[in-house]
Amino acid sequence: MGRKLDPTNNVKRGPGKKARKQQGAETELAKFLTEEETGPKRLSSRGRKRAAKRIQKSAEVTEKQPKKGFTDENSKWLKPAKRKRKVDEPENEDDSDERWEEEDDEEEEEQELLQKKKDQGKKKSGKVAEKQVEEEEEEEEDDEEEEEEEEEEEEEEDDDDDEMVDDYGTADDGDEEAAEEGEEEDSDGEDLLPIERAAKKDKKLKEALDLESDEDDEDDEDDEEEQKSDAEMDEDDTIQTNTDEGERFRLPGAEESEMEGVTPLDLKSIHQRIKDNIDVLCNFSSKREPGKDRSEYIGLLKKDLCTYYSYNSFLMEKFMDLFPLSELVDFLEANEIHRPVTIRTNTLKTRRRDLAQALINRGVNLDPLGKWSKVGLVIYDSSVPIGATPEYLAGQYMLQGASSFLPVMALSPQEGELVLDMSSAPGGKTTYIAQLMRNTGVIVANDANADRLKSVVGNIHRLGVTNTVVSNYDGRQFPKVMGGFDRVLLDAPCSGTGVIAKDPAVKTSKDEADIRRSAHLQKELILAAIDSVNAESSTGGYLVYCTCSITVEENECVVDYALKKRNVKLVPTGLDFGTEGFTRFRERKFHPSLKLSRRFYPHSHNMDGFFVAKLKKFSNVIPTAAAGKDDATEAPEETAALNPPEEKPTQSNKTKKTEAKEAKNSPQKTNGTANIKTKGKKDSGTGPKKAKLDGETVKESEKPAEKKTLQKTTRLEKKKGKTATKAKNRMGKNKFKKLKHMLTKHDRE
Amino acid sequence: MRPLTEEETKTMFEKLSKYIGENIKLLVDRPDGTYCFRLHNDRVYYMSEKILKLATNISRDKLISVGTCFGKFTKTKKFRLHITALDFLAPYAKGFGVAAKTTQECRRVDPMSIVVFHQADVGEFIRSEDTLT
What we know:
The structure holds 2 protein chains of 2 kinds.
Chain A: H1 17-21, H2 25-33, H3 45-64, H4 80-86, H5 90-102, H6 104-117, H7 120-135, H8 143-155, H9 161-165, H10 174-188, H11 194-212, H12 221-237, H13 239-244, H14 254-262, H15 267-282, H16 284-287, H17 294-309, H18 313-322, H19 325-334, E1 341-345, H20 352-362, E2 364-368, E3 376-382, H21 390-393, E4 397-399, H22 405-411, E5 418-421, H23 428-436, E6 442-446, H24 450-462, E7 468-471, H25 478-481, E8 487-491, H26 506-509, H27 512-532, E9 542-547, H28 556-565, E10 568-571, E11 579-580, E12 584-585, E13 588-589, E14 598-600, H29 602-605, E15 610-617, H30 636-650, H31 653-665, H32 671-685, H33 687-699, H34 702-720, H35 725-729, H36 733-748
Parallel strand pairs in A: 5-6, 5-8, 6-7, 8-9
Antiparallel strand pairs in A: 1-3, 1-4, 2-3, 9-15, 10-15, 11-14, 12-13, 14-15
Chain B: E1 2-3, H1 6-20, H2 24-28, E2 29-30, E3 33-40, E4 43-48, H3 49-55, E5 63-66, E6 68-73, E7 79-81, H4 86-89, H5 103-108, H6 124-127, H7 129-132
Antiparallel strand pairs in B: 1-3, 2-3, 3-4, 4-6, 6-7
InterPro entries (chain B): NIP7_N, Nip7_N_euk, UPF0113_PUA
Organism (chain B): Amphiprion percula
Domain 60S ribosome subunit biogenesis protein NIP7 pre-PUA (chain B): 1-83
């Protein structure tokens, strides 16, 4: 606030904006002050005395810390550990201390836990006063702490002066402590009974052990911090020893792993171990344990991540492949929390400005979504349910995730177009398309699931969309139903690895088979979608493929498959933010244009995981499977010759026959051309035989080749003339022999 | 999907005219094209002719909805108007005069009487989502 709080000074509030806005520090603080009433308490006379003593003692403590023992005659019964604070009231302390010492044995075990966690120095400063307070009234707030401290006081009798030196008590090693305490004890041993001495020693040993081991922190956080700060101070003091000791991250041995399987999970330590592990892996050469290789660290990390975030091993493997370690934890954390709620203004009925105003009046806290969207609003919090406002029922907006805006923006449908939405439920994208088209043109909203189509119909009617036809087909059959669309949107069903925040069941339920099944279905769907697009469309010819998954198998692989199988190419999506798609991933390489596709992640873009790719179809021709019969080695004339022979199957058999007859009848005259043709035919017809033929034709002279070609042609023609023409095309045995005979004669000549 | 029969058309237009009077013509002959009513699964859909052409490609059992649903014919062939028709009727609506007893009076009424006052219920979009089609 910057202004000193002066409650007595009533600031006059003048005209102007600021005076209205800022009511003054006083009113702001008034909200808090009511809670903190305990500040200046009214003390009784005793209380005041005690407070004075407190101040005195703290002053004395600072003075007397360096002293270890007392040199005056009180050294016998004044024990330095206690007495430093309690000089002014030796009597009370004496009695009380001795009393409490007797109780030591009984209370030992209870208090040890508390002991470790508490800062002993801190307690000591408050000890005296608190003691007094406890005895009489309990004015302090933290009663629990007091009681604990009470009990612990006698335990800490033997605590070091060293600890009193630093308020944060450097507990270097339990051993040192114990030793020092032992020394002190011996010097003060007179007052303690032997059994009490032994008990104290035991306590010290236990302390030392406990401090070194890891334990859950169930008590005050202060103690945690202090312990950590203890550790830090240790590190500062003894850096060299740290590198040698177990301070550095070490992989647990086999026994420890087994232990972990049996003992109840300790999430905090697992979390710490994850952090340490990542730290080691990032600076592997410097921080590794010699003898342990990278895979061991990674194996442990994977196991820990699976336990901590509840994933199954398969998914965790996938994510570890996708993200570098630094991003991996961010991504996993982002999956634990929900993305902000976003809504889309329905521009058919209202404007964003007006809608925002109306919702604010209802008590909704919102903001525009970002500069990339003119219709999106993000809801921070709301006093009314967002899905039930009158504005919602009147169809002025739609609850929609921010990532779902993207594919429609990429599609950018124009007015008057024919658009297909192949997988439209629950209808958010369909209605967005409709509002971009201003209710012109026609949209076909399809979905394979009839139940989910009800929500599509509901949303369409609610938002006032009039140009839509809703159908219930399996997307793969759509080309048969109708085609020739200007634009197609395919939001393919997927494994949902990008929306784990919405559906945590994905973490454990998805495995290799699921991903493969999804990918297979997506490949079929994308081919059907491509076949539904009309490449000759004057305004379009575009397909947008998107999924809410982040795995490569369902995204880049599917698009790459489509690029190979159809006459499509990738074009820029028009979205200027987002990560580029992969052009290669591990052992797979994709078409370089894949970098025009976009990936979105929850941890980097604060929206659900998403993938968007925009394809343009440039030809309606479907590349046939004949591409599999490679004619790469053939000369162009043969390929040219190929075309007529290829077309022959479509023609009537007669023409084939006549050609074949021609080839037969004029073996000598038109050998050259016929041979080429027949060769061509041959090649197109008989794949596996081709190699043989080629070899043969290359090696031998033409005439035997002719023979063979003739032979082959007959065989070929048999193949092509599938039905009754076979008999006619065939040469009779005798005739054939004659011909052969003739040719051999020719050869010899 | 089939065009409405004479009877069905009559019933429906009668219902509509209660709200918009003679302006039914305006619904059919619009500046941006001709619109028509078609019947599919006992429901009346209102759509432009362009959509009609495309919708004929879709087989009857796979077609869920076309354009806007105005309402449906009940089993006894009465026509019930749905909330989804609101947007189209509103511009042509005749001034409504509704006479009703006040809520105060409704409180004082005897225990056996029924109080119903239903004009238009925007909540139907969500509540009756399953029955919109």
